[in-house]
Design a protein that fits this description.
Layout (H helix, E strand, L loop, with lengths): L2 E2 L7 E5 L3 H13 L3 E5 L2 H8 L4 E7 L6 H9 L6 E5 L4 H10 L3 E4 H6 L1 H8 L12
Parallel strand pairs: 2-3, 2-4, 4-5, 5-6
Antiparallel strand pairs: 1-3
Helix pairs in contact: 3-4
């Protein structure tokens, strides 16, 4: 089941991940950083959620085995937020496929786990500023 938090003031980060325990840990960290997390269980849900206006970042676990051509098409549309991917440093093909698809940045599992908070805050798209002027 996909989970979308109900806090309407926080930006959203959409995560495509197959590791339940890492997903829970990442969800908790994202909440601590002030984001809402959508944990997508399918690539279709990931891409749909990525198109929402409040999405600041997409995160892909290369171990999920995404359809990189589908990811590339979504990136080419140009309306998606930055997407980062992480995976095992020995999965050279997976890392190359992510880069070829056009993700913003690719990290090894170790680097991503070690600096997750820094990486997320660095690559997350800034919040849209409201055009309303309060008086």
């Amino acid at each position: 089941m996909e989970t979308r938090a109900t806090d309407q003031t926080a930006q959203t980060i959409v995560v495509l991940n197959r590791d339940l325990f890492f997903g829970i840990r990442l969800n908790q960290l994202l909440k601590q950083l002030g984001f809402r997390a959508v944990l997508a269980k399918t690539q279709d849900v990931f891409l749909t959620e990525l198109g929402a206006a409040d999405v600041a970042l997409g995160i892909i676990d290369i171990n999920f085995g995404p359809d990189w051509e589908g990811i590339a098409r979504a990136i080419e549309e140009g309306t998606k937020p930055p997407i980062i991917a992480f995976g095992p440093h020995l999965d050279v093909e997976g890392l190359r496929s992510a880069k070829k698809a056009g993700v913003t940045r690719v990290f090894s599992n170790g680097d991503f786990s070690k600096d997750t908070a820094t990486i997320v805050t660095r690559y997350a798209r800034p919040a849209q500023q409201s055009e309303e002027i309060s008086e």
